[in-house]
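User: Can you help me understand a structure? I only have the sequence.
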Amino acid sequence: MRAEEQSEVLLSQTPAPVSWEHEVQEIEARRKRALRMGGEQAVERQHAKGKWDVRKRLYNLLDAGSFEEIGGLTGVADESQGELGSSFIPSNVVTGIGQINARDVAVAADDYTVGHGTPNEASSAKRTHIEELASELRMPLIRIVDMAGASLKSIEDRGYTMLPGAKWDWLSILSQVPVVSIASGPSPGLGAWRVAASHFSVQVKGIGQVFAAGPPIVAAGMNQILTAEELGGSDVHAGHSGVVDNLAMDEADALQQAQRFLSYLPPSVHDLPSRLSTLDDPNRREDSLLTAIPRNVRKVYNSRRIFNAVFDQDSVFEIGRNWGRSSVVGFARLDGYPVGFIGNDPKFYGGGMDDAAAEKLTRHIDLCDTFHLPVVNLADQPGTLIGLEAEKRGTIRRGLRVLAAVEQASIPWYTVVVRRLFGVGGAAYGPSRRLDNRIAWPSARWGPMPIEGGVDALYKSDIEQAVDPDARRRELEEQFAALGSPLRTAERFGINDVIDPRDTRPILCRWVRRAYGTLEAGVRERTVRP
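Assistant: Let's start by predicting it. Here is the structure, written out as tokens:
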């Protein structure tokens, strides 16, 4: 037989190439099935509760077409079923990488339509993986929480109980990348932990509930009959406890707040915040600042108008407005540079620091220090709250935590004293052991205690014995008010300068440019205090 003929015989005996087409079709079928989440009826039930499904949440959160799912084939299936993908039930958490304003972010979004949101080992493994990925790849993490609590069914399936505790390194990630959590549904137990263990959290009004244990367990253990909303709704946490930072009126609002929060921060601690272009003149002088502070110290004013006049137009983003209300904190921009700001609202306790306000200040200073945002303090701090209830709540100790946060921070700091600094609370206006930029408005007053209370304490008998006690009190207050002029302190360089309030923005815009020249990226020795 000729060689050519032998070759043809051998080729005819070679088996046809093996095709993996069937398996590829199964993969694609499962991916399509995963997009249907818990099925049509389960999704309809989700929508009937006024809640978006997980895919709509991701669609509205991320840049169009940017989502790359990780673990999309995680779930369970009966492989004996003949139809492609027919028995596949996806995991009840969707994870992956997407973009917000062309910047990479990692996301872990719960899907309550699958298994009523009950956690399992696979969903826990996906959450752990995406958090490790966010830390390793140095990108922000967003958690959308909408899940059930632990179930006795998981104990039955496992056949034994486990010691309580989280297997994910929630503390370490807080020192590495920005973490945002959104309570878009029930967030019991571990879900509450995931909401609270973040740099910024948002709770959706009416549908997001955060609690350590749900109503049935609370009823059995505490004999308290409460609805989920009464136990852990937005009035409880975003409006009182501070476990959640901000309230969102709906899911679109919550996602927008998450997007805006991240716009001020770098992707990780290994980067610096980015400057944005702005049309706002850095030398803008607002005449409204000249009349912003009343001459009568007992009159309140709108401190937020001052923030909006000083910082770049439309750049102020407040955090925690509805709790710790005597303190005001947030992010803003000066000539396009992101900064953190702190201040006071005299409409609550005269701006005095209660325990909740102290906690809010401590967390915000730590946040700014972790992610290298310089801080501007527009200070009007009459001191820590006084009285029996304040003493019972440990306000003094919490005020000391604010002092510790200020001293431990390493970021550039600038204080503008707009009205008062008194007592321990007033002492937390800025660092004492490193460069302390501090200027004052003519309306500023400071000291160990307010003149009004001090006069009554020191000259009690003098006032009582006077023919006209009220007139004598006013005479003494005026005498000490003259001694308290900021110009007297400036004469001895106890304050760097006393300025025309209208010059505040130009001064701060010049400072922030120089401050950014000193910033260094990297991990702080001290991380955020949860």
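Now, to help you interpret it: The chain has 22 helices and 19 strands. Residues 383 and 425 are 4 Å apart (CA to CA). Let me know which part you'd like to focus on.
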